[in-house]
Amino acid sequence: DSFATDDLVAGGLSWDTTPDDLREYFSSFGPVLECSIKQDPTTGRSRGFAFLVFESKEIVEKILAHADHFVKGRKVDPKPAH
To answer: Which pLDDT does position 71 carry in this prediction?
Structure first.
């Protein structure tokens, strides 16, 4: 498939961070194809991390090369999803 996608895990999210917050921030680096915040199945509360899928691995590389990322005033920690 010539259409390369790549994934990130973003950790350190505040409990009230929404997928829209993450899309709004990370779309400045390139198109966000998917974004899902992982939730505790019992409480429904955010577990403080999300999976994001981008259009290309170049976008992920650009994000990882950027020093600090802040969403809703909180530093988030993006890492490649393996």
So the answer is: 97
30-48 b/e (C-beta count within 10 Å ≥ 16 → b): eebeebebeeeeeeeebeb
> What kind and span of H or E run contains 34?
strand 32-39
DSSP, res 66: S
Return the bridge partners of 69, or none.
76
For β-strands 6-11 and 46-54, DSSP reports them as antiparallel
* 61-81 tens-digit pLDDT: 999 999 999 999 999 999 988
Query: Could you give the angle at the alpha carbon of 79 between the alpha carbons of 48 and 71, nearest 5°?
Result: 50
Strand partners for 36: 51
Long-range contacts of 36-39 (CB under 8 A, 24+ apart): 37/13
